[in-house]
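Hi U.,

Before I forget, here's the chain from the pilot set. I'm dumping it here mostly so it's searchable later in email.
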Amino acid sequence: MVMTEGTARRRGLSAAELAVTRHLLVHGPATRQDLGHRLQLSYASTSRLARALVDGGVASEALEPEPAVGRPRQVLTAVPGARHVVGCKLTADTAYGVVCDMFGEVKASARSALPKPGHDGAVPVAATVKVIAQLTGKLARRVPTLDGIGVAIGGVVADRSVVQEGTFLGWRDVDLATPVEQRTGLPVIVTNDVTALAREQLWFGAGRTHATFGVVTVGAGLGFAVVREGVATERLVDNGHLLAHSPIDSSGPRCRLGHAGCAAAYLNREDAQDRAAGTVARPVTFAGLAEAARAGDEVSGRQLDEAAGALGHLVATFAGALQTTCIVLAGEDVAALTTSPAMTETIAERLRPGPREVQRCDLEIVTTPLTFADWARGAAVAGIQHVLGGA
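Structure:
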């Protein structure tokens, strides 16, 4: 199924055009003078870029409705419908899809079951490509045009196309982008799912006020992403392994790799389930532990507090390593963990200065509980950035 009419690829923006468009998307409408000042562009360059973006349908320009002083000025505004991209989040058994406009606003959502794993334990690739294409075709009918696809998976991705390690799909060295492009006729970016969330936060979340920040997700496993000086790191050198297994308490429980009291031992779902009391409903989630604790189960309450404290240590360590004042917490289990005061107490204790220290550190924690549609939106924003020409 190749997309044809209304879905032909559009040229990517130049670096300067992308910089102006990104500013309009992130910070809102601006005059040419404001853009020139903020982006350090001459008035002539700003005017040329504004004309190109307006001619290309990416932006519109109109006079200020009520100028404060003097004559009204031209205000440049990004056009939401200039681009539409499908975002697809792949889990072990389901493809969750959304279609978004250029501001990342979800216009429609859908989901489809993935094929069952084969004898080798891997989800069949060709059948997965077919599911993605069918989901894309269904969502494409909800918008005037479609410009690209972003696919997010848990694991390691190279060159925005090759799944070197698909943690939940059983994949190794699978080129996913090429067959999806061939089947749909659209540009495709494949990305780690936490990296996609970092890209979304870069434009529409924490990145609006912080050039450098980290993302920690707690769900099926621990995930990490880094944005440094306004650029999302494509892949971590260790896929977050070093942070996930950083030591918390040498006398604590062992994770499945045998580390005593590491962060994963407290926060990985499988490890948490191994430790949970038999009274907690299976499969064990941190929300389930919180519910049991509220019902008076002291063992569950203690396990939840220990996990929340471990998350606090993890956040503080990550922030210190990045030298940032912002960490984004996301994922299905974040809301339950933040109900325990142990996380904020741990972070406050880690931030407490010594008696002779004059420098104080403030750490902003942005908490974003996620549904699978939110994960798919992250993939769509990564796709938007890709079809625009960079980021």
